[in-house]
Amino acid sequence: MSQAIIEQMLGKRCALDMEGLSGATGVLEKLDGNWISLRTGDKLELINLDYVTRIRELPEKTRRK
């Protein structure tokens, strides 16, 4: 995956699909080499891009009235 393409998604809420693993959802915070940091609530996940097959931008959460 191209780093330039992934940089467009930084700061956005996304869902990541990974090879042979369950996916992850959160805000993409930082891209460093072949690693990406994903903020899920109050936790931080570091994910190796070798295992990522797809990144999808998710809509912002809307509050119900």
Which fold name fills CATH's third level, the topology?
SH3 type barrels
Total DSSP helices: 1
Structural class: mainly beta
Largest sheet: 5 strands, antiparallel
Mean pLDDT: 89
Task: Give the C-alpha Rg.
Answer: 12 Å
CATH architecture: Roll
For the biggest β-sheet, the strand order reads: 4-3-2-1-5
Number of strands: 5
- Proportion of strand residues: over 45%
Indicate the multimeric state.
Answer: single chain
N-to-C SSE string, H for helix and E for strand: HEEEEE
Cα distance spanning the termini: 40 Å
Fraction of residues in H or I helices: under 10%
Ranges where pLDDT stays below 50 over 5 or more residues in a row are none
